Task: inverse folding
């Protein structure tokens, strides 16, 4: 019998739920006992979900999976956001089917996670929806491009990085010290133009990002370098918005330079004006709604 025949007759459906986060896989089933398919074993899990539907509303194709908050997948999102995208695959087969024909019922990724009353609800977004391209370019003076993007910005990220080891992490786990970070900023700047000021070199890595080593690397944006506190941090210290899941002193780390996204820093820091993705001469005022003083084409701020 075919899978469809079991579905429409006396089949006994069993569901297999797989979460994949980086190199870590979590396998569950709605059956009462573990299910082994090939080399993979799916452990019983008490969970509920809704069923996606087809309509003009793209949200109808999403699914919501509710499971205990103590579940390892729910724990991934308890305190720290994930660098890796967690994929979701739901498969079905029939327990009374001797050939165990598998059908993929849903494939997508986790879009959001919320917890309340010892339960965690996971929103699953289908893969097709996740690939939808959203227009994001705007007519603005600042650069629209992603830093180091190969088709737009075109700066080679490996030319503006520092590969080292973590010297120390503070108690909040958000301030990472990497010896030689400030020195490397000067080395990289000298290789381009040598035009950055001391203060700019102190902030060289701001708005860049850092990446831990290992088989499952984590990424974090650099939000301060050094921190704008009353007592500024050593320029060898960067601040990240939230801690790494697994990182400690002595672990490898790579820090990539940041960008202010204006033409000035594009020229002096990266010598990359040819690939600038903004419109630096955007009018400061709307000529259709605001009248400039007679005899001038500029505002008092000097913008055209």
Result:
């Amino acid at each position: 019998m075919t899978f469809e025949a079991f579905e429409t007759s006396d089949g006994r459906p069993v569901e297999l739920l797989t979460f994949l986060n980086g190199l870590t896989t979590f396998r569950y089933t709605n059956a009462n006992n573990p299910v082994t398919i090939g080399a993979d074993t799916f452990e019983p899990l008490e969970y509920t979900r809704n069923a996606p539907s087809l309509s003009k509303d793209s949200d109808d194709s999403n699914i919501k999976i509710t499971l205990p908050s103590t579940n390892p997948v729910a724990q991934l999102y308890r305190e720290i956001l994930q660098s890796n995208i967690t994929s979701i695959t739901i498969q079905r087969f029939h327990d009374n089917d001797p050939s165990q024909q598998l059908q993929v019922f849903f494939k997508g990724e986790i879009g959001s996670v919320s917890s309340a009353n010892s339960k965690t609800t996971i929103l699953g977004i289908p893969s097709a929806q996740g690939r939808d391209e959203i227009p994001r370019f705007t007519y603005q003076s600042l650069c629209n491009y992603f830093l180091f993007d190969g088709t737009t910005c075109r700066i080679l990220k490996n030319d503006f990085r520092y590969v080292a080891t973590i010297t120390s992490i503070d108690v909040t786990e958000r301030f990472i010290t990497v010896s030689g970070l400030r020195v490397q900023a000067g080395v990289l700047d000298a290789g381009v133009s040598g035009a950055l000021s001391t203060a700019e070199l102190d902030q060289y890595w701001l708005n860049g990002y850092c990446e831990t080593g290992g088989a499952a690397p984590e990424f974090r944006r650099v939000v301060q370098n050094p921190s704008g506190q009353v007592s500024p941090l050593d320029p060898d210290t960067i601040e990240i918005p939230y801690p790494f899941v697994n990182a400690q002193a002595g672990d490898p780390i790579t820090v990539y330079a940041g960008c202010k996204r204006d033409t000035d820093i594009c020229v002096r820091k990266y010598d990359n004006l040819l690939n600038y993705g903004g419109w630096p001469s955007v009018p400061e005022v709307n000529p259709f709604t605001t009248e400039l003083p007679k005899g001038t084409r500029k505002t008092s701020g000097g913008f055209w």
Q: What stands out?
A: The helical segments are 3-8, 72-76, 127-130, 181-190, 198-202, 263-268.
